[in-house]
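Course assignment 3, question 2. Fill in each field.
Student: A.L.
Task: Predict the tertiary structure for the chain below.
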Amino acid sequence: NLRDANVRVNQLLVLSEWAQNWYDNYKSQVQPSTYSGYKYTLKLITTHLGSLKVKDLLPIHVNSFLDTLSDLDYSRSQIQKCRAMLIQILDAAESNNLISRNPARMAKKLRNIDEDWEDSTKDAFTEEEINLLDEYLPNDLLGNSIRLMLYTGIRVQELLALTPASISEDGSVLRIDQAIKTVNGVPVLGTPKSKRSKRTVPIPAAYRNCAMFLRSNGGKELIWTKTLKQSLYSVGSFRRRY
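Answer field:
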């Protein structure tokens, strides 16, 4: 058909080259932390499919790639990220008339894995476990930070970006307007995950003492700050302490 006739076939263009081109041009469309995080997913795609010519890529290749990730015990989330990124990369190839159809959109679902995932439930603390944590966590910056996350639902990235001014004097309210993000392995201060993530969070009366402890005992600029050169505290460092 006419669409197929207009395809600009580059006989030598391999997927790794086109994927890198797509990645380089995608930078302006996302936040730096998101762009940096895409590197790992891109590497998985190019490692397994990168040597194939773009014009030769078929749905069966995509199916085989996703099956391989499943066999290697990659998480559902990571496999979904690979699938989604591959669709975007090949959508761009289709838009630029390098291929007539996107083979990633025609690939079959991983039926056996999807069925298993449909039966799975999210892992969460039970009420009994929350009570145990509340009882045995120490009365220090770490313990009260974890209590605050449990009872307000704020993310670690948001906790690490709190300032004393983020917490009201009576500990009744948290104001979330920034978050710690990781760009090329380095923590940076930025905006929350989305526009809706900027919010005011009420704190239950029984846990306002935790918020006031953080306000009084944390750093002067950021509550969580490494003392060496007042550097930002990373999510990884916090989790290791946890």
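Instructor remarks: The first strand starts at residue 173 and ends at 176. The chain has a mean pLDDT of 85.
Grade: pending
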